[in-house]
Amino acid sequence: MPENRQPAEAVNPLEVRDLSVCYRGVHGEWAPVVEEIGFAIGPGEALGLLGESGCGKTTTALAIPGLLPANGRVVRGSVRLDGRELVGLSERQLEGVRGAGIGLVAQEPALALNPVIRVGEQVAEVVRVHRRLPWRRCREEAARALAEMGFADPGRIFASYPHQLSGGERQRVTIARALVCQPPVVIADEPTASLDTAVSVEILALLRDLVERHRLALLLISHDPRVLAAIAGRVVVMRAGRIVEQGPREEVFRQPRHPYTESLLRRLTPPTPTDGADPGSGEPLLLDVRGLRKTYTLRRPFGAKRAVDALAGVDLAVGASARLALVGRSGSGKSTLVRCLALLEEPDGGEIRLGGQDLVALPRRQRAAVRPGLQLVFQDPAAALNPRFSALDAVEEPMRLQKMEDRRQRALELMEQVGLPPALASRPVPRLSGGQKRRLLLARALATRPRVLFLDEPFTGLDLPLQTQIAALLLDLQASYRFALVLVSHDLDLAGSLAGEVAVLDGGRIVERAAPADLLRRPRHPASRELVDAARTLQGKMDGVVE
Amino acid sequence: MIRGVITRGVITSRRVSLALAAGFLALLYLGALGAGFLAPYGFDEQDREHTYAPPVRLRFRDGGGRLHLRPFLYIGVEKPGAPGVYEEDRARAFPVRFLVPAPPGRTGARVRLFGVEEPARIFLLGTDRFGRDQLSRLLYGARISLFSGLLAAGLAVALGLLAGAVAGFRGGWLDQVLMRTSELFLALPWLYLLLAVRAVLPLDLAPSGSFLLLVAVLGAVGWARPARLVRGAVLSARGRDYVLAAQGFGGSDGYVLRRHVLPQAVGVALTQLALLVPQYVLAEVAMSFLGLGVAEPVPSWGTMLAELERYDVLISYQWMLWPAVLLTGVVLSYHTLAEHIRERLQAGEV
Amino acid sequence: MRYVASRLGYGLLLLLGVSILSFLLADLSPGDATAEMRLNPRISPGAVAALRVRYGLDRPLPVRYVRWLRSVASGELGWSVAFDAPVGPLLWRRAGNTLVLAVTAMILAWIVAVPAGVWAAARQGSWGDRLGLAASAVLLAVSELVLALLGLALAASTGLLPAGGMASLDYDALGGWGRARDLAAHLALPAVVLALSAFPVVHRHVRAAVAEALESPFVQAARGNGIPRRRLLWRHALPAAAKPLVSLLGLSIAGLLSGSVLVEVILSWPGLGPLLLQAILARDLHVVVGAILLSSVFLVLGNLVADLLLYWVDPRVRGT
Amino acid sequence: GSPATQPAGGAAKADDGPRRGGRVVAALGSEPRTFNPVTAADGASLSVIQAMTANLVHIDRQDQEAKPALAERWTVDDGGRRYTLVLRPALRFSDGHPATADDVVFSFQVYLDEKIDSPQRDLLIVGGQPIQVRRIDDRTVEFRLAEPYGVAERLFDGFAILPRHLLEAAYKAGTLADAWGTDTPPAKMAGLGPFRLRERRAGERLVLERNPFYWKKDKPYLDELVFLTVPNADAQAVRFQAGELDVVDRLSAESFDRLSRGGARRGYQLTDAGPGLDLNFLFFNQNDLGNRRLPELRRRQGWFRQTAFRQAVSAAIDRGSLVHVVYRGRATPLNSHETPGSHWLNKTLPPPRYAPDEARRLLRQAGFSWDAAGALHDPAGERVGFTLLVVAGNTERGPMATLIQEDLRKIGMDVRIAALELQAVLDRLFTSYDYDACVLGLDGGDADPNPSMSILLSDGSHHFWGLTHGGPPAPWEAEIDRLMKTQIAERDPAQRRRLYDRVQEIVMEQRPLIALVTPNVLVGAKAGLGNLRPAVLDDHLLWNVEELYWRQR
Ligand SMILES: Nc1ncnc2c1ncn2[C@@H]1O[C@H](COP(=O)(O)OP(=O)(O)OP(=O)(O)O)[C@@H](O)[C@H]1O
Ligand SMILES: Nc1ncnc2c1ncn2[C@@H]1O[C@H](COP(=O)(O)OP(=O)(O)OP(=O)(O)O)[C@@H](O)[C@H]1O
Ligand SMILES: [Mg+2]
Ligand SMILES: [Mg+2]
Q1: By C-alpha distance, which of A42, A82, A36, A44 is closest to A63?
Q2: What is the ipTM of this complex?
């Protein structure tokens, strides 16, 4: 089936044939997850892998360098790197391949970095291991790789520990780590998932540049057709572990042969809510934030302290049934803001008034009582779910804590609503796909009836049909239970379609508030303008392909 | 995960060792409970003609070379002038008998699994300095040691788990108070406390009383160590997103501790448990020294192991090592079980 | 720094509390420093009573405590009835000897047990691992006293090592190098015995902690970048697993002075052990309290070191 | 007893007399606590002091007779009330300072001083009066006693003569009791013994060197005497075996047997010097409980006060197996409190007999009875049982208690063993009286009846079973009191022996203490050590340390 466009005599950097992977379930039974897939990537080629959440994309990516989890196994097929068979190699042989021959950008940056080692060293050690350069040189290489990732302050990032970085920053570090040795083959699993459009565009440009200049073979996994459209020459579409369609980008995007493919390409706009209120319309204020500040200090062993003003005086008002979107560059303080508002982080100054009561000044015990009313969907699903829980446990937990009835029933219903089949209910959390974890997180948040629901990048890693489905669900629930919705998103389109108002965060301050349409049409602040431009560029790529 | 790759084909052998461990422990506990039936003698029956007698040799072939289905043995006689050297008296063979009636005695058993006709003695594991059957004493001794060791270690680790988790999780003044208390407990002159306690207790303690006392004292003394270790393991848990999330859902501290934080420390706690059980079996000796352990002639593994602390016994009478051998087995088995539990917890299967 | 100072302040309080409790409990427990003399038919009760008066044992508890405090303040650290001498000088030299032994043993134990534990964690279920576990199980099942006796037997039968003591009779005649060799020869046996008895604890904790860390996703991710196994174990898994181990290290430091009593007695090491054992049995209270206080100092220091290290190894905790 | 010396493996060839030089390494179970002869009471200190000091008169450890020492002769007159001792000429302390009668007078002044309260002071009180010491001339001293004292020469054995020039200042300052602690620099100490201190390493060892001013000509032969601190008895045996110690004392029977097996090859010799002076005994608590709330004990004391009960217990104890199991046959069963190691033993007493039937008979006669299960009940129907107090961790008395427990079970008594740490035992024995019976051991001191006084007299300070008595509660106790008090003043040895023989008889009949066994004295030494004559009196090996020498090798 795979039609090889390379001349027959040239060896492809990466060739996958007839690959099948199985996972062993909790009861010891083996279930196929990837079946008989095959593709080849030539030098200087970027192959896009598109597919719905849970179809086996990550499994494929992990199987190639032999990194399947303990309960996974390649049952059939071959993987060739520059003609060398990888399936069946010893761990030691594979060590030499990984990082140097194949760079892997894993899907979950939250867990991909060692919490007790500075990230700079984690990048540098890859150089050290493969190139055996002196440490000083390795660090230089690492600093260079980090600098390419569009950080405003690469020095600080270099010396930070993972927990001191924002989600997007962590993701960029993992990309830098995969690329630092300039491997001939790179596998990138949702590399831009939690990046804002501006940075995404930069990174994609970088990748494309690498592909072209270094004749890199890139396997790019994404649910976002725009991302694929930006660089992938060919696209493979996967469904339930099998390849349903494969071909040049234009072909697949313009005339998908399969209705499944088509569904993955179109975002259906969710029905615009009827009572979409914006705070200006005289609705009672629910949340009133004044001058919120949060400063992190970085200590170096023998160096000066450095302060990072994650929030530098944020003022924000949210109505009782508002739908507010927060957008901003990666590292602009979005997550910090919502974490502070959900009372999960202690702000350094300012006020958070909920119905007139200042929550910052409340004693610990009373604050705990307020908390269930303010729910946050975390940015990193993998970190926000207890790895020891099963899927069902995770969804049931808040209901159990709030002593709700019919928990199991409701939990299963909620899972169904976010597209998780009941078969997954007993699965331990670490054995879910990235998108499945994300959905689990959403289901868990929806199980409670908060007064304010904060969603931190809730749609990353989800395919378009799911995004639509969940957006509709959210609006539905808001209509019936009336709560305020604060959405952090780097996807301006999505934010626009869901929110009644958009606030742009930059450098820890809110620099602009506007109706979505206004913002898209006439961004006033430079930061806003940058975001809008980036979104246009990306969309333009897609449009270019499709038109 | 990495392990799965590095260690190949160990799944099945792991099952086997788990089964072995569970089987061994089950046997021991059954043996302890059924000591009255299994032991060929009472734990206090002395045979002063046979002090430090080596294990008897069970024979199947007699002097004439005939093979017997039923094993038999000869009487061992101490060589005159050479204490501790025994020779077999081949004049008469004594076949091993099964399900023999037991003479009335302290132990209250009616029937015993096996025995031999007097004056022969079946000392399968040899005798101690009073000519008491080691096997019987091991079985009866297991009653106290296996239970007290496990209970005391369990108590200490449970207390330690609680204190360490609370301290590491809550931090702040509570952490300070708990950890300073643990230091106090580590520094306390326990010996004097125990002596003072002993002084107010009646002179003859009932075995059940001293058993409970033993467990309580060891547990109370021992919590500080596991507490500090657990605290170390738990310390970073409070910043984890999923812990924050659970608190956000209105999970009380107790709930969050139980469901999210404590499992972090299970590995440490189980390791401590596996380490403390043998230590507490041995600690019983020290307690006996203070008059708080079990008194003669009631056996415990601790007091039996203490015999090894006499140079001549250690050097000369190898069969006195049996309690150490069994305790080693117990340690290994507990460890295997602990390991298994930890793995199951890790995989989220429990 | 403020933190350290406040911890040391707490440490002083602890010492005070422990000393008060020691006096109180010793008062409640039967016997006193002169009781043993009463068993000697050649010593009259009058002489014993006079001794009690001389050492102030007949005074009420608070008076005795205050007297002791005063003597501590003067640097004497109390007065030993048995030796009829100030406690301080009795303790210092012996505590030094104990430290030489205990520190050597601790270093030995950790140097062997940590790599062994890491190695075992990477090869769980292998024969080497099982062998290590079995060995540590044996070590757990026999007391250190038995180990020391076995060491003694070994030394006596092979004649390779001295069977006790800290220095040869002609130690003073030896040169610098000879002295070092002599000390090493005498140190070998007790240090190995102590290290062996500490080995299982460290080994098992390291093994369990590293095994757990190896399961973490970040190790998997590092593996995805081709980090070789050895570096994964030592640079990634071990530091990530270090927290309980650091606590353990603190506890090891805390036990430096008190952990070697029995080994010292069996192998005639001139440390605190024999002195302390004798003092406990003879109710030479000031010596006992002095030794308790000294080892409490190590306890405080050990735990302080552990807590500082805890902050150092885990940046997440450091941040808060 | 006659020492049964094992032949040394080929080492003892033709001996051409004592030679100078060499050192002997001995072990101490604990560190000496002081070098001050006035306050020393523990064994380790006494051992060391013994080598550094000398007495006026010396009791020969082998024939147990008084021999001249610093005093070359003495006369007794005034009916045994006055002793005149003449010192040897030109005595010098180990620092070279001459020793004269002034030093003797000073020494006894110190020992007698109430403020110093030497543990030995009581020995110098005769007939309620302290003895009077007077200087006659430089070499002559006179001692006056208020009453005649049977064995007054023995008084002069236990008191080391102190150097007045070194200690008088401390005495005047009232700090003599604190003088000569273990930290004292060697130069500040001096004695009349064969050795003097050269070096001390705390907790580790003491090195003594030859005293060049020693009064016995040419002696000591050894240049050095080293005491190592080896706290563990097993370790002492092992280090002796390894050749690190030249002599070893108080071996356990197990070590003795084990070491015997390798003796010839290793070049050491072991000596079983026969029964010593140590006494192991059992006694019942007959103390008057006053208003202590111990109802159970009060009831049981009804049995303990019956002679028949005590006799029955004694008859039911199989002393043979105590000897066999606890001492591997290297011990002797006892019927009374005096041991065969002392020549004061009443040899006409029968050896103890294991007679459980006799025990039953005695009990039956006293109204006790047995139920169907064989348990013993007293006339009131109470089950007979008691706790047996024993010092925990003691390797001799502990096993004894276990054996006795089993022996008494056979006659229906329910004995429970309570092993407590020494201090707790002492507290119960001397203060709270809360115990039923106790197995105790006493180190044999002197081979003379007088040290037993405090145990045997009904108002004695160590009359363990009846410390509250303060006087004889029964006629036989009154008789013991009388006999003991008579013998102390008796100067005719034969008459003394008759009196003391009778005491032993009464103790055997009445069993206020039930004597059990006495272990043999087991010692070892390198084969090349000459003049070694192990004795049953302390110090078994080094009592004649000045005469020890290394044979030609
Ligand atoms: N614990 C911390 N210690 C130090 N710096 C921190 C810490 N947490 C966050 N920061 C820094 O604060 C800034 C804001 O972080 P935040 O997570 O709010 O960004 P964000 O807007 O959510 O970005 P992204 O879109 O990448 O998730 C970042 O520069 C980050 O490096
Ligand atoms: N360790 C595991 N054990 C068992 N099943 C697993 C495991 N990991 C993933 N799966 C299942 O295998 C399927 C494929 O997972 P995979 O992670 O490859 O999906 P994906 O295509 O990457 O999805 P997403 O876009 O959501 O990340 C999913 O149904 C998932 O639930
Ligand atoms: Mg995925
Ligand atoms: Mg963020």
Answers
A1: A36
A2: 0.86
